[in-house]
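Extended Data, panel c. Modelled sequence:
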Amino acid sequence: MIGSLLGNRYRILELIGEGGMALVYKAECTLLQRTVAIKILRSQYSSDKEFVERFRREAQSAASLSHSNVVNIFDVGQDGETHYIVMEYIAGTNLKELIKKEAPFALNRALRITLQISEALRHAHEHNIIHRDIKPHNILITNDGVVKVTDFGIARAVTNSGYTQTGVVMGSVQYFSPEQA
């Protein structure tokens, strides 16, 4: 995939992250001459309509949000069997890596990080979107300390039918609330 041109526009530069259903690459938008991140659905899921729908729903959920603490979505597309989401590229690290390197944090720093995460979630909730997978991996921190929440892959738009679906468990097991577990 490295070096290929996706959607006649995005040159794939390097792999920067992996998740259960997608890979994330650093890429260059050749049209706008800017660095972006591209989340590409793993090939084994590209023919599964449920996974493709979940992937598109992530793009739609996140794209409806405009907040300084939420990663911006620029584009969504399909190139052959490859489904992708183009996002703001965040130079920095994720909270998991930061914790490994620098924990414990000073109280003021921990509060600044927590406040920014809370602001992102508040904004999402005001737009009737529940993230449902907040964990250190999904919290990016820029080199100048700005927190960006990402990966709305299992977010749910709140409807009149409620917040949950009976018999379905979503999220990362290590970060479940006790009542979910």
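The CA atoms of residues 17 and 171 lie 18 Å apart. This feature is highlighted in the accompanying rendering.
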